[in-house]
UniProtKB/TrEMBL annotation:
Residues 60-234 form the NodB homology domain. GO terms for molecular function: hydrolase activity, acting on carbon-nitrogen (but not peptide) bonds; metal ion binding. The keyword Hydrolase applies. InterPro entries: Glyco_hydro/deAcase_b/a-brl (IPR011330), NODB_dom (IPR002509), Polysacc_deacetylase_ArnD (IPR050248). Residues 123-150 form a coiled coil. This is Peptidoglycan N-acetylglucosamine deacetylase. The keyword 4Fe-4S does not apply. Keywords: Coiled coil, Hydrolase, Metal-binding. GO terms for cellular component: membrane.
Amino acid sequence: MHGRTGRHKILFFCGLAYTLCLFSILGISVDMKNGKGAEELGRLKEAADYVDASVVEEPSKIALTFDDGPNAQCTGRLLDGLKKRGVKATFFLIGMNAEDNPDLVKRLYDEGHLIGNHTYHHVDITKKSNEEARKEIEETDRVISAITGEHVAYMRPPFGVWQKNLELEMDVMPVMWSVDPLDWTTENTDEIVNKVVTETEENDIILLHDCYESSVDAALRIVDILQKKGFEFVTVDELIIE
């Protein structure tokens, strides 16, 4: 999920190759004979420092996710804001809401956001029989795939509780979260924003909801702040498959 080690190796070898090329251009050779070693090592250090300053690490990736939509009053405004900022997010849709708002589902798909399953009725599937739980997931998949033409591969179980056996029986992967500002408990956007921007680190998955005006306001402010800090927003599949 992290992949930082691989990126560091790539950056190291790119930097090494660049250094060797630079040495060749500058005519640097490490010759310790004839008292020239100290001078040449000094030039080598200057070149290495230049390479170190010129090799920039990839930005830290994080994922912004939204549950309980699509919402006729809020989701469209959120999509406008994300599009303006060039951000892709992940939306875990309630099946009956998707059925009521097919145009928003289509827009989510067309604009490159990842769509996930959040059950048809927003139920705690651990309190349902296996058959009822499968029906909640399959019915939502049916609604969404009828609009997008694609099977919904990712699932966020309501309340964060999951039946492990369903993962073995069904072609769906559960996705949880690592940063939760509990935005559904407050309309104070400052509180939501502060909690997220102070806690978020590389590879974090942020949980918000696109059915509250305050959450939409907070989400767009969060994007603005974290982008300035150098974070890159990606869909959750990009974090999971690394």
